[in-house]
Amino acid sequence: MHAALRENLYLVKEHVGLFKAANNFDIFDPASGRKVLECREPNLGFFTKLLRFTDYKRMTPFDVRITTPEGRKVLTVKRGVSLFLSKVEVLDETDRVIGLFKQKFFSIGGAFDVFDAHEKLLCTLVGKWTSWEFKFKAGERELASVTKKWSGLGKELFTTADTYMLSIDRSVAADDKVRQLIMAAVMCIDMVLKE
Predict the structure, then answer these.
(1) Alpha carbons within 13 A on the beta-carbon side of 137
(2) Residue 115 CB contacts under 8 Å (≥ 6 apart), including other chains
(3) Per-residue pLDDT tens for 109-139?
């Protein structure tokens, strides 16, 4: 696991764009302001780009790469075409499947289960229907939370860019593999639950 995934706080900034098909984020250490990771969707096909501007964008496939600013691969988050419920694969830097997400049927605020590579349930991502807040819970224990930070009316009205704060609980060990899955899940919340 890459050292950048051992922190407890991350500021995730989506790239600003009026007409953008790809999902691109920069991930910062909020204490230093230093960019620690980049999230890009480099291999977006022509038809997928077209469908991203329609009501079918939630069904489109994605192949998101999380890398260091220098370009070293850290994680890959992939989904094929999704007709009803999403199933998303997470791969490590060697392209080995380390986990997956399965969208839950009938969840008011949006939810999906987070599994390891052997489909053992690790936690559940649960959203609130009243706001853009998500929690990763293993039973009653909260592992992490994601909140949307408001960044000004003008930016919110005229662009599709968002800013999120990911907070991983201190009780989650720095070398716990669930950290990889939490980071991967944050990169696809919009594409699976909110778009």
Answers:
(1) 10
(2) 99, 100, 101, 102, 121, 122
(3) 567 889 999 999 999 988 876 667 889 999 9
Q: Nearest-CA neighbor of 39 among 158, 151, 162, 159?
A: 162
Read off the pTM.
Answer: 0.81
3-state secondary structure string, the chain? CCHHHHCCEEEEEECCCCCCCCCCEEEECCCCCCEEEEEECCCCCHHHHHHCCCCCHHHCCEEEEEECCCCCEEEEEEECCCCCCCEEEEECCCCCEEEEEEECCCCCCCEEEEEECCCCEEEEEEECCCCCEEEEEECCEEEEEEEEECCCHHHHHHCCCCEEEEEECCCCCCCCCHHHHHHHHHHHHHHHHHC
Which tokens in the block code for residue 18? Answer: 């009026």
**Side chain identity at residue 66, one-letter code:** I
Both tokens of 36, joined, read 């620690």
Positive or negative torsion for Cα 112, 99, 123, 14: negative
Residue type, 87: K
Would you tell me how many other CB atoms lie within 10 Å of the CB of residue 102?
Answer: 17
Q: How far apart are CA 94 and CA 35, in angstroms?
A: 23
136 and 152 Cβ atoms separated by less than 8 Å: no
